[in-house]
Amino acid sequence: MEEPRGVRVLLQAAALLATRSFPFRLTLFGDGKDVSDFHACARDLGLSRPQVDFRGRVPNAEALAALPNADIGIIPHFASESWNTTIPNKLFDYMAAGLAVVTSDAKPAERIVRETGAGLVYRDRDAADLARAIEVLADPARRLDCARRGQAAVRQAYNAERDAERLLAALQQAVASHRRSGRREKA
């Protein structure tokens, strides 16, 4: 856990929800250079277990096994050069597990969530907007609709088979282009 992953903003949103008596339980997996700061932030905001549960680093299989116990998967990454050019794997993990997704407007996660209808997007670094998105998805019908759309998108487009097909097509196109350019040079 590091600052650019938006954990502090997520904790601030949780504190806002707590002041509104909004029921929630936030489970965080991972470690990193800023994790002790996030523990202190949670304490300073009046958040404690069971509202916020820092699980630390766990095997990926354990984190994935916990997803069915959740209602919403949250990706609070800051919009930055790094996150605007990277798709976090957790996006597809959440979608495949049938969770509605809330993501910051870091691209391309924003694009995928909007295009698929898998969840909601909030303004980067805006705890109040993140809290609002979470509250909207408290509606079971809305949350279930997003979850179903996300699962369908993973089945149809965002999976290893489709990735392999796209990679093979790109390689075939590159080989064909190379062959065509080689023939022109010899002539």
**How many extended strands?**
5
Distance between the termini: 58 Å
Fold-level CATH name of the largest domain: Rossmann fold
Radius of gyration: 20 Å
Number of helices: 8
CATH class of the largest domain: Alpha Beta
Q: What is the CATH homology-level superfamily of the largest domain?
A: Glycogen Phosphorylase B
Structural class: mainly alpha
Shape: elongated
Series of H and E elements: HEHEHEHEHEHHH
The average pLDDT is 90
What amount of the residues lies in strands? 5-15%
- The domain tally reads 2
Helical residues, percent:
40-55%
Tell me about the largest β-sheet. 3 strands, parallel
Overall CATH architecture of the largest domain: 3-Layer(aba) Sandwich
Poorly predicted spans: none
What is the strand arrangement across the widest sheet? 3-4-5
Main attributes of the structure:
8 helices; 5 strands; mainly alpha; Rossmann fold; 3-stranded parallel sheet; two-stranded parallel sheet; 187 residues; 12% strand
